[in-house]
């Protein structure tokens, strides 16, 4: 049954919510459990459809994986397969994150090619080039990727031409049990990379420079399962900040990490919001009328995240003045623009650049999400809009936002899922 959200916009938000655990940390850490002996406990693991697919992949491979009281329990001692069926790869292109760990653990991996997606072509050339450098033989035929490392993987120097998040994670996962040392230069520096490395280090891996541009990994013989708490989701925090901003609200976010929001907070401050962070809690207060943020450019971390572009565009749509938003990470990440315009936004896109002229008001309409973060942007806009909006395509949202209708509802938003 296809669900949708009905949102009556224009209501002020009020109160406090806990920010969920990070999706983009949970997925690589779930893949990393493949490398460990014993039972892992992952606290703060969000209940999301993408996480559910990762757990289903683990169970398909012969592992025990379930969620109890918000913690994922995973034991991979029974692993007995090295292939990931096409249906999982199609459901979640991020399933490619299992490649490095499977190859390391089994000496083989068989996956279908993730192909293009709603954000434009999403190649994995950097992942494959690095794994080849570490001794893997890889054939790509008829949409299937077959990887073998009959003698095991060997550490190698890997220089990434772009600091790809997924490629950095796959290389780390391949390297922690490889023979010798792997050095990744121009590695991604996202907090989720650091979280993966923290988990692996607790499990016994030897990793230096996590969260920096150069990561050095000395392969070890084995890793043991551990208990680990997933970091808070900085993109969900940014979305809730955008929701409070467009409704002129004052809210409190609990369980945040201020240091992960380094490029996000200044954007809201420029828009006139007051932000105070203390002990993992944020007080966020919006002005009566938002000021336009002149220029936002999405960049690899520590730059402004592409995943927060859509919610912040929704905020710009109701700000006083014009904003220029440049999308530098993905080719096709303005799909929400047409739907924002249906709500009355004034946005023009030219290639990777969007010019957003703030309007006084948006008006409720029937809109449809076409990808995860775009869906978040549309919710923000619908919360700002006068009257009723009907948002279709919320299965995209549920890939990354845990019970978002209930979260917003607890803050006083008029939103129901039907
Ligand atoms: C991850 C995040 C996603 C986020 C993105 C950028 C997860 C599960 N997803 O996606 O939410 O939007 O980082 O912060 O963590 N590229 C290549 N060749 C490759 C790999 C990537 O050309 O082999 C290109 C991509 O096409 C894209 C850019 O690099 O244009 C960034 O991709 P990458 O950092 O790899 O993003 P993901 O890991 O897919």
Description:
The chain is an alpha/beta fold and 418 residues long. It has two domains: 4-20 and 232-417, Enolpyruvate transferase domain (UDP-n-acetylglucosamine1-carboxyvinyl-transferase, Chain); 23-229, Enolpyruvate transferase domain (UDP-n-acetylglucosamine1-carboxyvinyl-transferase, Chain, Alpha-beta prism), CATH 3.65.10. 30% of the residues lie in helices and 26% in strands. The protein contains 14 helices and 26 strands. It has helices at residues 23-32, 49-60, 86-91, 98-106, 125-133, 165-175, 191-202, 234-246, 265-270, 309-317, 337-342, 372-384, 394-397, 404-410; strands at 5-8, 14-18, 36-37, 39-43, 64-68, 71-75, 83-84, 108-112, 137-141, 144-148, 157-159, 181-185, 206-208, 214-218, 223-224, 227-229, 250-254, 274-278, 281-285, 295-297, 322-326, 346-350, 353-357, 366-368, 388-392, 414-417. Strand 18 (274-278) and strand 19 form a beta hairpin. The longest helix is centred in the middle third of the chain and has 13 residues, at 234-246. The radius of gyration is 21 Å and the shape is elongated. The structure holds uridine-diphosphate-N-acetylglucosamine.
């Amino acid at each position: 049954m296809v669900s949708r959200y009905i949102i009556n916009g224009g209501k002020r938000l009020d109160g406090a919510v806990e920010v969920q655990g990070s999706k983009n940390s949970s997925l690589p850490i779930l893949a990393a459990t493949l490398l460990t002996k014993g039972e892992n406990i992952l606290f703060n693991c969000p209940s999301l459809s993408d996480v559910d697919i990762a757990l289903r992949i683990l169970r398909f491979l012969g592992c025990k994986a379930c969620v109890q009281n918000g913690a994922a329990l995973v034991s991979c001692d029974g692993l007995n397969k090295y292939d990931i069926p096409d249906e999982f790869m199609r459901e979640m292109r991020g399933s490619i994150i299992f490649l490095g760990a499977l190859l390391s653990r089994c000496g083989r991996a068989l996956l279908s090619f993730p192909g293009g997606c709603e954000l434009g072509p999403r190649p994995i050339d950097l992942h494959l080039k690095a794994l080849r450098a570490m001794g893997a033989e890889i054939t790509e035929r008829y949409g299937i990727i077959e990887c073998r490392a009959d003698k095991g993987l060997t550490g190698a120097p890997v220089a990434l031409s772009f600091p790809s998040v997924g490629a950095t994670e796959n290389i780390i996962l391949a390297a922690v049990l490889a023979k010798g040392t792997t050095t990744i230069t121009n590695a991604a520096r996202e907090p989720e990379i650091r979280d993966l490395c923290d988990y692996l280090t607790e499990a016994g891996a030897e990793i230096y420079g996590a969260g920096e541009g150069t990561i050095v990994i000395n392969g070890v013989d084995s890793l043991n399962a551990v208990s680990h708490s997933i970091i808070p989701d900085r993109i969900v925090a940014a979305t809730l900040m955008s929701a409070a901003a467009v409704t002129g609200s004052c809210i409190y976010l609990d369980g945040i990490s201020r240091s992960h929001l380094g490029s996000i907070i200044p954007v809201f401050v420029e828009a006139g919001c007051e932000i105070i962070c203390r002990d993992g809690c944020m007080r966020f207060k919006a002005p009566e009328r938002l000021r336009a943020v002149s220029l936002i450019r999405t960049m690899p971390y520590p730059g402004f995240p592409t995943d927060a572009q859509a919610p912040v565009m929704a905020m710009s749509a109701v700000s006083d003045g014009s904003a220029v938003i440049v999308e530098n990470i993905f080719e096709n990440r303005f799909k929400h623009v047409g739907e924002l315009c249906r709500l009355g936004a004034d946005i023009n896109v030219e290639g990777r650049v969007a010019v957003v002229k703030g309007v006084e008001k948006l008006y409720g309409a029937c809109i449809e999400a076409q990808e995860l973060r775009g869906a978040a942007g549309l919710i923000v806009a619908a919360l700002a809009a006068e009257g009723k909006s009907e948002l279709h395509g919320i299965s995209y949202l549920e890939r990354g936002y845990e019970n978002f209708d209930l979260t917003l509802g607890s803050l006083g938003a008029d939103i129901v899922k039907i």
